[in-house]
Amino acid sequence: MQIIAHRGASGEYPENTLLAIEQATVQGADAVEIDVFAVQGELIVIHDHHLARTTNGTGSIYQYSLAKLMQLDAGQGQRIPTLWQVLELTHNKCWLNIELKGDDTVAPLLALLNKAEQQLGFDLESLVISSFNHHLLSAIKQQQPQLRLGALTASLPLDYAAFASTLQAYSVHCDVSFINQAFVDDAKARDLKVFVYTVDQPDDIQRLKAYGVDGIFSNFPARSRKLSNKK
Ligand code: G3P
Ligand code: CA
């Protein structure tokens, strides 16, 4: 079962910062998950469009210039990273799940990935692009069909397999509160990987391992790795 560091090693370091992401790779996470918005065409890594929870700023990211956003403290002296910085950091270290939060993210993402392929030799197969907004995923599938897509679900939709199949998704990403064995079996029969968020409790880790899920998003990747290796 793969361990995906949720917003980096966010249980111990400020979420979605280069520090949290680097620490996740040091702790041996298989992958890192990050959240992305677009501001003036630049992709930045932050979970909320409101700044107050994770930075010393207030209001919405859309009220500020990129230069001003880059000056904010995102915890422990960290800045809000750009997606480009995260691609540089994770390149050749672990796979990366980019969760699209903003609805204007597709065009800048495809342009940035093209640049990363050219300039860094970035392996696009080391990416999974996910979103709760399946319209964004559909737009990516039309423009760049080889990219791996993760269909995020907030609950347990009746038609989850239909949208995942229509998207030709690589994976479904499910909430730990709703997942069950039947869901996992059905997804696997459809050749979909199953990744579950957000999983830090020992009993959940054992239960999901028994279901045979492919990976879990954890805020504490090192601890979750140990727990998942336990018999
Ligand atoms: O991608 C899994 C999980 O991160 C989705 O929920 O709110 O933590 O972005 P959220
Ligand atoms: Ca997320």
From TrEMBL:
One of its GO terms (biological process) is lipid metabolic process. This is Glycerophosphoryl diester phosphodiesterase. SUPFAM superfamilies: PLC-like phosphodiesterases. Residues 1-228 form the GP-PDE domain. GO terms for molecular function: phosphoric diester hydrolase activity. PANTHER family: GLYCEROPHOSPHODIESTER PHOSPHODIESTERASE, CYTOPLASMIC, GLYCEROPHOSPHORYL DIESTER PHOSPHODIESTERASE. It holds the Pfam family GDPD. It comes from Arsukibacterium tuosuense.
